[in-house]
Amino acid sequence: MPNDAPEPAGTLTYRDAVREALSVALREDPRVFLMGEDVGRYGGSYAVSKGLLAAFGPERIRDTPLCESTFVGAGIGAALGGMRPIVEVMTVNFSLLALDQIVNNAATLSHMSGGQISVPLVIRLATGAGRQLGAQHSHSLEGWYAHIPGLRIAVPATLDDARFMLAAALALPDPVLLFEHLYLYNMEGTLTEGLERVDLEHAAVRRTGRDVTLISYGWGLHKCLSAAAELAKEGIEAEVLDLRTLRPLDDAAIMASVRHTRRALIVDEGWRSGSLAAEIATRIVEQAFYELDAPVARLCSTEVPIPYAKHLEDAALPSPPRIAAAVRALIAPAGGG
Amino acid sequence: MNAPAAALLTQTHGLELLREMMRIRAFEDRCYQLYGQMKIRGFLHLYNGEEAIAVGALRALRAEDAIVATYREHGHALARGIPMNRVMAELFGKQTGCSGGRGGSMHLFDVSRKFYGGNAIVAGGLPIAVGLALAQKLRGETALTACFFGDGAVAEGEFHESLNLAALWKLPVLFLCENNLYAMGTALDRAQAETDISARAAAYRIDAAAVDAMDVLAVEAAVARAAQAVRGGAPAFLEMRTYRFRAHSMFDPQLYRDRAEVEAWQKKGPIITLTTRLKAQGLMREEDYQRLERECNAEVDSAVQFAERSPWEPLSDLERYVYAERRT
Ligand SMILES: Cc1ncc(C[n+]2csc(CCOP(=O)(O)OP(=O)(O)O)c2C)c(N)n1
Ligand SMILES: [Mg+2]
């Protein structure tokens, strides 16, 4: 939807970037189609697919009934049958109704069939909290999915990744889950000039620093960047690593950064117990223990169902001030010297 | 129910159907023994009593049609033409098995024959069949997808979602419900408020009928008719009324049904039914039956030898195929 105020040339939102990625994929490959709840006439519950129905028609922009398990399973079947489906699940919370298809079928068929089958399926899901949507619409379950061998999990946090990760996912023969943080859809910016593709293997250093590595993804990345800007005023230089893919995890990039800064803080909107943050912390301890100057630290969501009231929701989530505070504690431990 | 198709029966046709059912029976009976000898492990669900469904249906379908089945799928795999050696080797967990030994009894795959598995999640295959059919439709293929599942699946949400979606989108899916009256130990009427399964399918505006699945000719005729309708552009549903002669799996003491009930059904089993008819019509003698039985047993013998002699997949391959090695 055009904004009232004229925008600087090349400015777009994250939402526009995902929509552009969808348009290009649909245009370039006749096997690609998009299906999900309200992706067509409604324009997508987060307006991502707005306008695509008019451009590509109802066969390729396919509104489904409310049946997550079956339309995700149908995506798997269509992938087996030679198509390149993109399935949109409104939010990760509703993907729980499709867990069986994702975990028992998409993730297993290649291995269980001795490599005869691959499932080139892309599932897009909105994730995350921050908009006062309450406990059934605000959870960050991407870490759960990252537990599952056979799936690939990617999280576009920048406009470039929002624009190009989809093509990278479609080019892979495996099931890929792309998590779009609902807070990012309105983020504005420009694409890197000349960029044509991205990979789904490597983490990216989004800010360099020498004192501590902030490891995050999705909206957490932006919180880390704000915290890093604050910390810089105090003379603390934080390096910020955008994981980009949660499965596989780019161990090499994580360890390279941690070896350089000797301190690590993992920032994750998921909960802490049995989490992705726990996995990353463990890997750091396993691979870089003797190079650390401080224990690995984590800042995760408070272990509660995310509440509605704004002050409670804010308090439950990692925030730039809390990230900065955690960094200060790491660098100058209370009572330390 | 459909009228018996006796008039259509020729000797060759009848003997071929009989042989195919006997092959499956011989295979299943041997599996039972091999389980006792610990050659086959895990869950093993035998198809005795239900052979007419796989045999009649797969004969009526085309090689281009995709198949989705359940964990009780040895019969479907054999009737689809996956070599018995490869099915037996899979049950042994050998590398020469049709899933490389990674799937076992419940997960037979042969993509070259459009056999998309053994799915061991009750009703889990229905959405996949809907998706395969969606691909067939979008690609303008003439093929359909046949999806086999049990009466137990009717209670699952995916059954209802899948029937609705297939009907709504007019997808070429043939739903084949193998109603053997039990889901493990739960009789249909203890699980379903409405036990008329085809009526429930009809509620989704899908052409649905019930078939006496102890009569392989009735199955074949019904599937041929339904397949034609499906190729015409709408899903169809057949409730195959059948009975499982053996336990649900190898861990089932069958506390939930009487011997007498089982014996009554065995008397009208699909192999006996067809044998009686062929003999009555003078199309087969007892020697012919015995010859068929010897041939089927010999095929099973050699499948067992093949499986025994086959190698195990090397441990170094354990992590292969978690992600696809081929670009698709
Ligand atoms: C979703 C799910 N729930 C439970 C089971 C355990 N289970 C395996 S087979 C079975 C009975 C299914 O009965 P039915 O669909 O009638 O098929 P049949 O075994 O009679 O061929 C059950 C409950 C399962 N495999 N999947
Ligand atoms: Mg049953």
Number of helices of chain B: 12
Sheet-strand content of chain B, in percent, reads 5-15%
Fraction in beta strands of chain A: 15-25%
Spatial order of the strands in the main sheet of chain B? 2-1-3-4-8-7
Shape by Cα distribution of chain B: globular
Number of domains as seen in the coordinates of chain A: 2
CATH superfamily membership of the largest domain in chain A: Thiamin diphosphate (ThDP)-binding fold, Pyr/PP domains
- Give the radius of gyration of chain B: 19 Å
Strand order of the largest sheet of chain A: 3-2-4-5-7-6-12
| SSE pattern of chain A, N- to C-terminal | EHEHEHEHHEHEHEEEEHEEHEHEHH
Q: What is the residue-mean pLDDT of chain A, rounded to a whole number? A: 95
Q: Mind explaining what this structure looks like?
A:
The complex is a heterodimer of chains A (337) and B (328). Chain A is α/β, with parallel strands linked by helices and 337 residues long. Chain A contains twelve helices and 14 strands. In chain A, the strands form three sheets. In chain A, strands 3-2-4-5-7-6-12 form a seven-stranded mixed sheet, sandwiched between helices. In chain A, strands 9-11-10-13-14 form a five-stranded mixed sheet, sandwiched between helices. Chain A is globular, with a radius of gyration of 20 Å. Chain B has 328 residues and is α/β, with parallel strands linked by helices. Chain B has helices at residues 11-36, 51-60, 74-80, 84-92, 125-138, 157-168, 188-191, 197-202, 216-231, 259-267, 270-280, 286-309; strands spanning 66-70, 115-119, 145-150, 173-179, 182-183, 186-187, 207-212, 236-241. In chain B, the strands form two sheets. In chain B, strands 2-1-3-4-8-7 form a six-stranded parallel sheet, sandwiched between helices. Chain B has a two-stranded antiparallel sheet with strand order 5-6. In chain B, helix 6 (157-168) links the parallel strand 3 (145-150) and strand 4. In chain B, helix 5 packs parallel to helix 6 (157-168). The structure holds thiamine diphosphate (TPP) and magnesium ion. Residues 72, 120-122, 150-153, 178, 180, 182-184, 244, 248 of chain B line the site of thiamine diphosphate. Thiamine diphosphate binds next to strand 5 of chain B.
